[in-house]
Write a structure and sequence with these properties.
Strand order of the largest sheet: 2-3-8-5-7-6
Helix content: 40-55%
Distance between the termini: 34 Å
Strand content: 15-25%
Number of strands: 10
Largest sheet: 6 strands, mixed, barrel
Number of helices: 17
Radius of gyration: 33 Å
Number of domains: 2
Structural class: alpha+beta
Shape: elongated
Length: 425
Amino acid sequence: MAHCDFPCLAPAVSYEFFIGMRYTRAKRRNHFISFIALISVLGIALGMTVLITVLSVMNGFQREIRTRILGVASHVQLSGAGRMLGDWKRVATEAGRHEQVLATAPFVSAQGLLTHDSAVRGVVVRGILPEHEERVADIGQHMKSGRLENLKPGEYGVVLGVELARALGVAAGDRVVLVAPQGQVTPAGVIPRLRQFTVVGIFGVDHYEYDAGLALVHVQDAQRLFRFGDTVSGVRLKLKDLFEATRVARELSRALGPEVYASDWTQQHANFFRAVQIEKRMMFIVVILIIAVAAFNIVSSLVMVVTDKQADIAILRTLGAAPSSITKIFIIQGTLIGVVGTLLGLAGGIALALNVETVVPFIERLLGIKFLAKDVYYISDLPSELQLPDVVITAVVSFALSLAATIYPSWRAAKVNPAEALRYE
């Protein structure tokens, strides 16, 4: 039989791997070491679960805010000098020729006061052409009562957001008074321009800013009330790909000339999306530090294992094991802790992220509180959107931190002097 040194004990699997796994599974004399290792695994798993869930919730917020804002706002908006656009039909026709533009719609935008009995609310009044507005916005799909088509020129009908209607105490068929800021000069002084409107519909897009502050009227009624004549405030565009809005706005601005100003949704609502993006990055950094703390518990665990196993290390060295082999043994042991924690964290994070919309309402009912009040936050429900890149990045970072935590204890194990370790054995 051929001679076989110690490294041939496990020809199919390296003996470093065999011993590293053995040390992990073995029942240690010092149970405190096992406890520290368990805490390391649970810490990594909990940190990853929190991180994946937080990133998914941030993604959900970004998606919901974008969807709800762009369901009422526009992908690209074309306006003229002084917030008035004269030849809007020509502008709409030329803009519609762009390959990215799906639909165009003129609008008049102004501010006013709506009153009913003793209730008064400041509103943004948007004059629209209902048949065009349906193509660029989703308001028609969120009508609680009535329809946008009920807005007829000359009939002075108005469609209100559901929170605005509730604040004024009105329903479909009731009458409200709209006060325009442009006053009418008379011998008695400046008198505000007033017009009575009939509520012909109520919408709810689940975005408090619009539900509580937007009133829709027919564009011709808005032109008469706010003295726009034949002009409008601008033209709203809907694109095939909303993420091409910046490029399309730039190209249309060059094509339509300096008298037309083009802005896109990333400019109009930049503060919302930038805030969510910054919060997402900061939360990623904070929770990664939590994972790092858990991962570096591996250091203390392995250092105690090295101290406990000095005699074993010395015997391995005297049998011919190289210092690099000793290093591999403890790297394998620490890596296993990291892998188990990472896998548990992945499972927990994915499961929680996919069920946030069920778990959070349960906690709210259990505690009797509401985490996101409608009148404070733009979104009252906690959304979640699990994205593969977030999961992959989280797993890679967690595993890398766990692996880095094994370097020092493994190096220290390789430096054990066999003679010193066996002196008192």
